């Protein structure tokens, strides 16, 4: 988390003890807001894993979401080349702006990747709290062999569609494969992020 951050290198003096902190959603890469940190608020952020700023108006530390519950869960922090600005990667628990907007720039923080997160949560819920009416729950009930078999079947079907020129059918099979793949990961109790980490290591 702190491989790109060295607190002792940061130039707090340039801003009279404060340093700008740009907050970015680690998933969508959208900029959510900007605040100021002093050394104490930065240390508290690293310790609590909840983004904490220094309020210039209230003259005190304040943890984002301390009253609304819309906290910013810390993922990592980087310092810029001059060591006088921070880039804070977070996973927001609700709107970032006090107005109720997703960001303090009145922009939507929606992204297609967020639907994948939503789908993962739904699949996990069906895994932990089975429903008789749920197709996903029925797959888990049949066991890992059946889930793996479905992934194999969908893989074969997408290969078949890839040989033709029907984009709509290919997209349908691609969606089926991705869904069943996520179900398989849940059945193995493996998060998609773990797979992505393997890809990132290979890319390096």
Automatic annotation (TrEMBL):
Gene designation per UniProt: hisIE
PANTHER family cross-referenced by the UniProt entry: HISTIDINE BIOSYNTHESIS BIFUNCTIONAL PROTEIN, HISTIDINE BIOSYNTHESIS BIFUNCTIONAL PROTEIN HISIE
Primary site of residence: cytoplasm
Domain called Phosphoribosyl-AMP cyclohydrolase: residue spans: 33-105
Biochemical pathway: Amino-acid biosynthesis; L-histidine biosynthesis; L-histidine from 5-phospho-alpha-D-ribose 1-diphosphate: step 2/9; Amino-acid biosynthesis; L-histidine biosynthesis; L-histidine from 5-phospho-alpha-D-ribose 1-diphosphate: step 3/9
Protein name: Histidine biosynthesis bifunctional protein HisIE
Species for this entry: Mangrovivirga halotolerans
Record localization: Cytoplasm
Keyword Hydrolase: yes
Chemical reaction(s) catalysed: 1-(5-phospho-beta-D-ribosyl)-5'-AMP + H2O = 1-(5-phospho-beta-D-ribosyl)-5-[(5-phospho-beta-D-ribosylamino)methylideneamino]imidazole-4-carboxamide; 1-(5-phospho-beta-D-ribosyl)-ATP + H2O = 1-(5-phospho-beta-D-ribosyl)-5'-AMP + diphosphate + H(+)
